[in-house]
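Pilot study result, target chain (162 residues):
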Amino acid sequence: MSPRRPPRPGGVPLRRRIITCVAIDPDQLADLLAGRLAAIVPAGIQVRAAAGMLWYSRHAGRFPGQLGDFGPGMSGTHVRDNFEVYGPADEDRLAGTAVQALDELQDFVSEATHDPWPGERTQPRAQAQVRGPVLHLWYGAAAGDHVVLACEPIPLASLRRG
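Predicted structure:
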């Protein structure tokens, strides 16, 4: 008889999933996320990666910001530092870190533009899921039924340490 895995919060048993990529480089994840996120943000918003972090900024004079000063403003997500906090499985770490990046980018863009980006009246939820050998990223319903905005998926093979 094999030992039972501990339940997740809410009583759902934890099932370990095997994914294709087992040695993930968080800095490579930050670099690839920067490219995917930069492709979906409104004009005037920049996304870049440096030293395991994502940095979000806006062009000076483009958006009023919260203080109405039109300054460039900057924010970021600690990809490398937060990668380990999302559980023991690489799949959970990838999805958790990606959702955090999507969520923090969404906050930055919404504050800069004063609009509920990428929604129209409300902000859709940030979502990420590993399906097969690919990490999918989107804003919308968890099941992917109603996708408001999606990023190009990231192949797990491109995240290998080495």
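One observation from the pilot: The radius of gyration is 17 Å. A full batch analysis is planned for the follow-on phase.
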